[in-house]
Amino acid sequence: VYFFSDGQFFLSGTNVEVALKQITRRKQPHHVTQAEYALLTKMEHPNIIRSLALFDNAPIPGVDTIVLEL
């Protein structure tokens, strides 16, 4: 994932813009975030966004990031 100064995020090596959902482990346990990611990767519906990647402890320890399609 690449970040640009105007707040846009793109998949590395593509022009595909993505959204990032960052979750602190204080607010949501890691196993819940993993379950959310797993569920979203399996969903195939035009009104539900898909998750593309899960980064543990990124960008900082204690924060997980889910990469979502727009």
- Give me the secondary-structure category: alpha+beta
Instruction: Give the termini distance in whole angstroms.
Output: 14 Å
Q: What is the count of DSSP helices, taking H or I runs of 4+ residues?
A: 1
Name the beta content range.
25-35%
**Integer-rounded radius of gyration:** 12 Å
Number of strands: 5
Q: How is the biggest beta sheet arranged?
A: 5 strands, antiparallel
Strand line-up across the major sheet: 1-2-3-5-4
**Topology as a string of helices (H) and strands (E):** EEEHEE
What ranges have pLDDT less than 50 throughout 5 or more consecutive residues? none
Characterize this entry briefly.
The chain has one helix spanning about 30-40, and strands at about 1-5, 10, 15-25, 50-55, 65-70. The chain is built from one helix and five strands, in the order βββαββ.
Write the layout of secondary structure elements.
Layout: E1 2-3, E2 9-10, E3 17-24, H1 30-42, E4 51-55, E5 63-69
Antiparallel strand pairs: 1-2, 2-3, 3-5, 4-5
Q: Can you offer a commentary on this structure?
A:
With 70 residues, the chain is α+β, with helices and mostly antiparallel strands. The protein has one helix at 30-42; strands spanning 2-3, 9-10, 17-24, 51-55, 63-69. A five-stranded antiparallel sheet has the order 1-2-3-5-4, with helices on one face. It is globular, with a radius of gyration of 12 Å. The model has no long low-confidence stretch (mean pLDDT 86).
